[in-house]
Amino acid sequence: MQTWLGHQAAGWLTEQLGQQVTIGSIRVGYRFDIQLNDVVVPDKTGDAFIAFKKLTVVPSRFQPARHRIRLASVMLDSARVNIVKYAGDTSFNYSALVNLFGTAGTTPVAESKTTPWRLHCGHLDLSRVHFTYLNQNKPRDLQGMDYHFIDVNEIALQAEAVTMIA
């Protein structure tokens, strides 16, 4: 069942994104905690935008009327995140994924007359994360910090009470 569910989700994402998405398995626990294993989501070039060994999300409370989502915990292990703006492109490689879930073209929070969504995570645990940010439309800066090319490996982070507003 877990492998079948993973393959169904990967098939749907593959169809929507036009790239071969893989999900090894999805496990849903009795308290609706979700664990995704062996996931690879490529960008339009076929390179992995995000890949990870394991992501576990434990929900706490969903309050749509108040625009709030509370998660007890989020744990991400052995991940690779590549954010790239390819030469000649005006958007980053994750734009197809953002567009798929309907956030493209929305009104920014500061201009919106509706209540913004609040996502609160009680415990955030990142381990063995490799993050790359690359803007190929900007020249490389070989002196000092190059903010258009960032490559950070072996990120480990534990944080409590993280809130995001969108």
Q: What brief labels describe this structure?
A:
166 residues; 6-stranded mixed sheet; 2 helices; 6 strands
Task: Give a verbal description of the structure.
With 166 residues, the chain is mainly beta. The chain has one domain (2-165). It is 13% helix and 51% strand. The chain is built from two helices and six strands, in the order αββββαββ. It has helices at 2-17, 95-100; strands spanning 22-28, 34-42, 48-63, 68-85, 118-135, 149-165. The protein has a six-stranded mixed beta sheet with strand order 1-2-3-4-5-6. Mean pLDDT is 88; it is low at 103-107.
Offer a concise description of the structure.
This protein has about 170 residues and is mainly β.
What is the topological layout?
Blueprint: H1 2-17, E1 22-28, E2 34-42, E3 48-63, E4 68-85, H2 95-100, E5 118-135, E6 149-165
